[in-house]
Each structure stands twice: as C-alpha cells, then as structure tokens.
Write a structure and sequence with these properties.
374 residues; Alkaline Phosphatase, subunit A; two-stranded antiparallel sheet; 11 helices; 14 strands; 19% strand
Amino acid sequence: MRSRALGLVGLVLVACGPFGRGPDSATPRPMGPPRVVLFIGDGAGLAYWSAARFRDEPLAVEEFRVVGLVDTRSASHKVTDSAAGATVYATGVRTYNGAIGVGPDSLPRRTVLELAEMSGLATGLVATSSITHATPASFTAHVSSRQAEPEIARQMAGAEIDVLLGGGRGYFDGSLRPDSQDLLTGMRRRYSYVEDAAALRTLRADTVRALLGLFAPRHLPAAAERRPTLAEMTSAALAVLDHDPEGFFLMVEGSQPDWRGHENNTLESVTAEMLDLDRAVRAALVYREKHPETLIVVVADHETGGLALEEDSPGTLRADYTTEGHTGEMVPLFAIGPGAERFGGILPNTRVGELLLEAARRPGQVAQLTLERQ
C-alpha cells in the first residue's frame, strides 16, 4: 500500500526464494499476495488452551493441523516478559526484558510489520490492551523501555499502519497525555475513526481504506464486559486490509489471558479470555475460506502464572497457580496456510520471528532487515 523511504545501516539479509518453496517445504505453495495473520495470546500457555477446550464450544485452533512448541526465553532472562517476547517475534532477534523493537544493544531492529510496509503490503495491529502496550508496540515502535508509552504513541501516530484497533486513547488525546501533545487530531484526518462498539458495527469496513479505533482511555474491559469483542475487531481489520491487492500483515493480540494469570483469577475468567481469543481466530479462518493463501499463526509470548487445572469435584475443574509472574515453560503454536509446516516441532522464538519475516514479503523480494538510526 503506502511506502516510506528509509535510510539503511548495518547488514542486509538476502532472503532466497519465495516463502514456502525452500528445501524444508514438501510441496509448492500458492503464490498469491502474502496474507499473514499472527495471533498472540499473551501469557496463554498449554493449560490456558486446555481450559478453553473443556468448554462445549468447539475451538477454532482444533482445525489447525500444524502444532509446535516454542522456547520463549529472552536474551537477558530464562523467563521473558511481553516486550522481549513480542520483539523477538517481530524481529527474529532475542533482546532484553523490557525492550520494544530494539536488540540487546538497544539499537532499533526492523520489524515484520515495517518490512511488510516496505513491501507495499497493508498492515494492522489489534489488541485488547492499550494499542501502545508491550506486544503491539513491539511491532512498530523502537524504545529502550516498554514504560515509554507516550513516546510509543508518538511513533505509532507517525507510522503508516492501515488499521489500529484497541485501547489507549489517553496516549493520543492531548487532553489526556502528560505532555498535552495532540496526536489524535492529525490521525483522525488520515483514518476513519471510531470510539465504541456500535460505531464499529455500523462502519462499512469494506469501503474504508484506513481505520483507527480507540475504545478506551487505557485498556479494554475483561472479556465478559468487552465491547467490541476481539473477534469483531479482527473481522473489521481483515475487511479493511483485504482492499490491498499486494496483501497484508496483521497482528492480533489477546492481551488479557496474561492479566488473569497475574491475578491468579478463577478458571471461568481465564476461559472467557481464551474463548474471546479463539473466536477471533475463527474470524480469521472464515476469511481464509475465501483466501486460502492466508497464513495464520497462533502463539503465545510466554506462559503466566504456572496455571494448572485440578479437579475440584467430580466433573468440575479449578485453576491452581504456582506464581503471580511469568514462567519459562514452552508455549503451544498453531499454524495453517502456506508454509505452515515450517512452524511445527520445537522452535526457539527466534525461528518463529524469522519465518514471519520471510512470510511477509513478496515472492523473490530481497528483504532488507536493518533499520535507520533514530
């Protein structure tokens, strides 16, 4: 879609051959425009998905035939945080806990979203947290600390992202920002803008070319009260991004399984977050029915809480936790679409990032993965 002229420093990575046609691919893949949807369930380890599966509702991820496990460690810790956990998926580079879009040397690294923009693809970020929170921020901002959300918002406002949906209005609205800088007025000139679920539902997304939705001053509510749902935001994002004939990259975060784990919440609240995420995955599968060249990857940045499912009484489970923090256990990955088989098995999180970078480029393109100094 839109492109930026960027000064490059450092090394250039040459990506040889189209994604899905390398020596580890068994059969040729559809070579239409790249359409990549990455779902990150923050904190969603295996027990979180197990909790969701105990409900009567069939899970969308059960339709994925490629399943893997991901080693989530960061460059600084065996147990990662969300900033480093997302940055490695965005860049293919392990970094220190707290880092947003920078390497262990604190220098910016080009992200898969930025590479997609360079390739002429449309791009989008969706989250149930503030859109400036660690996971979405890691795909478009470059700061040394995840705490710098006003600066993350400033960088997002200057980027050429086609869809931004989530919370965080307070980081863009000058009347709410600590420095009173008004970012929202300029963004509203570039985007179709909505602030509530009703406006999103009545929006003719098929006629919109750029969409901004900021549904809360900070974070969206928990799943039981959340409006719009993650599935509604995902469907709207896909409808907008589908306009681009060159393809797109979309990252969707179910942000709040992590928070339920940090709070050691009930199994019901954990399950509600996981079902909200899985219904968003279902929306992507519906889109894929018309566009089988779409690659969908579902993964977590880390596990939170050391969640275990214990029998409370016959036929009834309860949540038990070992910590209020993150854990170092591997997390599940599900993939479907062109090149999905490359995501199977036990992978370091760096490999997941590398594969996403390969997927979000046009066939035969040389991928320049360095970034100008900022």
